[in-house]
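Chapter summary example.
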Amino acid sequence: MKSTMAESDISSSQSPGEIDHSFSRLASRPGFLIRRLHQINYAMLFEEFQSRKVTPIQYGVLSIVETQPSLDQTSLGKEIGLDRTTTADVVKRLVERGLLRREHHPDDKRMWQLFITQEGSEVIATLRDGMARAQERLLSPLRPAEQAMLMDLMTRLVEANPHYGSPMRAF
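The structure predicted for these 171 residues follows.
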């Protein structure tokens, strides 16, 4: 018989109403494991990127702007899943470092269009191998078929829940 999440919160050695505070209880929750895996992935990327003093979020922003020149700042935030304030802060730091350039949108001066600079492109090129190494390290405990399955399952979960992907949804 399949147990529900609520049932898995109670171990066989405890009385009804008693709370199990063990790690195994937390590890039975998909959200907890996803958050832990995100932390592990972030740490691996951070190790790879520290030589260029770029965070994984900054790398993501640079990668998106490189592939979508003239993208506006609001669309960038939606694309990467950041709120407006965080997006503005990340962009400001990358502009100050000379990795991105901002220009007012020709039709709407309230909007900023983003462009990667030559130095930004060089940073992305330098870090691309490190990003690939981090991803390989993350997935290395899995066989190739399991890696493909994990990617497929994660993609399906993300695509099935787009209305929860907005950073502003929580507010």
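To summarize the output: Residues 118-139 form the longest helix (22 residues).
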